[in-house]
Design brief:
alpha+beta, Glutaredoxin, 4 strands, 38% helix
């Protein structure tokens, strides 16, 4: 049986794109972890360390070791189908 990789969403609750991804995952009944990078310094630091420029590039989604920065739904679906 295939292990489901952890899905993490880095963003802010006021960002319209972050809200889109939250709804996207909920509509697909996919478990995910949400990290608000403006409310939590540790979450911001984790996100900064994903990028060589150390910027808060959000929204960013990680699926296991795959990193996606503000992906289109079709791209996200592609990676989810490969991972799940």
């Amino acid at each position: 049986m295939k292990t489901i990789p952890e899905i993490r969403l880095f963003g802010t609750e006021n960002c319209h794109k972050t809200k889109h991804y939250i709804a996207f995952f909920k509509n697909k009944n996919l478990p995910f972890l949400f990290f608000d990078v403006l409310k939590n310094k540790e979450s911001a630091e984790i996100l900064r360390n994903l990028y060589t420029n150390k910027k808060l590039n959000f929204p960013t989604i990680t699926i296991g070791t795959k990193k996606l920065r503000n992906p289109q739904d079709e791209v996200l679906d592609k990676w989810l189908s490969k991972s799940l």
